[in-house]
Design a protein that fits this description.
There is one protein chain. By secondary structure, this protein is an alpha/beta fold. The chain has a single domain, classed as P-loop containing nucleotide triphosphate hydrolases (Rossmann fold). 40% of the residues lie in helices and 23% in strands. It is built from 7 helices and 9 strands, in the order E-H-E-E-E-H-E-E-H-E-H-E-H-H-E-H. The strands form 2 sheets. The chain has a 5-stranded parallel β-sheet, with helices on both faces. Strands 4-3-6-5 form a 4-stranded mixed β-sheet. The structure holds adenosine-5'-diphosphate and guanosine-5'-monophosphate.
Length: 181
Amino acid sequence: MGKLVIISGPSGSGKTTICKLLEKDPLVKKSISMTTRLPRHSEKNGKAYHFISTNEFEEMIQKGELAEHAEYCGSYYGTPMNALREALEKEIIYLLEIEVQGALQIMEKFPEAISIFLLPPDKKTLGQRLIQRNTNKKQDVELRLKVADKELEYSDQYKYSVVNDDLEVTVNTIRKILGLT
Ligand code: ADP
Ligand code: 5GP
């Protein structure tokens, strides 16, 4: 049986960066989510996400093809159930980089899942990291920071909270939690 791992945290807390570093380990694989949001510059369909239309997404919900789904900042996001089930049949660590509403659905369906909430060192740093990433318009950054306040309220629902100050320290802490070091 594989291990299911939920990684959540406000936008800009470092989820994508950290998952990429964790994925360097051959035992770790990240789930590729479905989304209706538009791809960013560097994002390839089928790699960062499977980019689909709202109609296609709603059809997947109807058919029960998503392990969880949520609406976030005006777009749908969801975890494909088939890929998750296949992953759990293997001896791997399967990462779900998902927001809190979806995470709560997974915690209920898979109580054995390891859940990790990533925290920024402080709100100012979170804002700076979002601006420095330069992938969202000013308005979108403001919305994401507003949503962050709500998301932080859910951090105590997770088995672990990790502050992402120094990147290397954070990755090592998570590797320890996952039993990789
Ligand atoms: P998320 O996926 O949670 O939205 P990202 O992984 O895209 O966040 O990180 C947001 C920005 O912050 C990126 O530009 C990333 O390079 C940077 N970043 C992530 N972790 C750290 C860290 N520990 N120290 C400094 N910058 C970081
Ligand atoms: P972004 O637009 O920055 O890529 O992602 C926005 C938010 O959606 C992030 O918090 C990210 O973790 C979350 N997300 C990505 N994929 C999924 C998913 O499959 N399900 C849910 N519930 N959230 C997701």
